[in-house]
Amino acid sequence: MTPKVSPTLYDDHFNDFYIVMEQTSPEDPKINIIGDGSKEGLSYLRFSTCLQSFRGRNRNRRLWKADQVRTMVNDRPVQELIRKNSFVGEAGHPVPMDGKVTLERILTIDPNNCSHRIVSLNWPSNEELHGVVETLDEGPGTPGYRLMKNIMQGIIPAFSLRSIVPQRKNADGSTDVIGPGRCVTYDRVYLPSHEEAYMDIEIPVTKVVTKDNFTTVMESYTDFMLNHSDKVRGIIDKMEPALETASYDMNTGLVTMNTEEGRVFIAPEVKYRKEFKSIFDHF
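The chain above was modelled as a monomer; its predicted structure follows.
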């Protein structure tokens, strides 16, 4: 059953009303869905992780000091990338098949191998650097998609600093970092040189789903109607509405939602219907 709505809905002479549909027809099971669903937005994971620790030599027998790394990550290029949402890291350190790592490759981020971005950095203590990380959604088969699926399957990702720093080789084979250098990024690895540099499993991983701008706009106007329209609030206060089912239809000007009585169609005040129609005419 499909309600028929008068084309004069946005006229000042249109009477306030609401409709309750006690039963609706089932959806046609033969609906053909065309497209890859890209307009539905993005789906990715956001989580907290330890990126580096400073409690002594790491597994590579390298000694880092917190103040050196603090200077590096506070450097203008890193902070600019964080502000621009572009501080990304790769799936693994860039080691070519022949094993010959060039300085140019170390300093270059390969956009085709990026799996995550670092949203923010924080220091819970002077012994650890942590960050908020998001997987990159570039579709199935990409490094970010695989990282997301790895986490969902229970793999705990780890991270490792990629940098250029001055260092001193000691007689026993260990290495001391002797000053701040350049932080390139933190790559995703499987066995980090710092034992603590894993995703923090004590902090819940958040699944983020973003929607296209039009859907977001529609949801914001629905929320506005529910909170500001005296007509809508007056009607639903007498019912048991499922507010999560509420939506605003730009074509009819009606707020709809499910209640115990059925599907409800409510015409908000004329001033809101006319105001929103003038906005939607620009879409």
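The domain at 41-209 is CATH 3.20.16 (Serine Protease, Human Cytomegalovirus Protease; Chain A).
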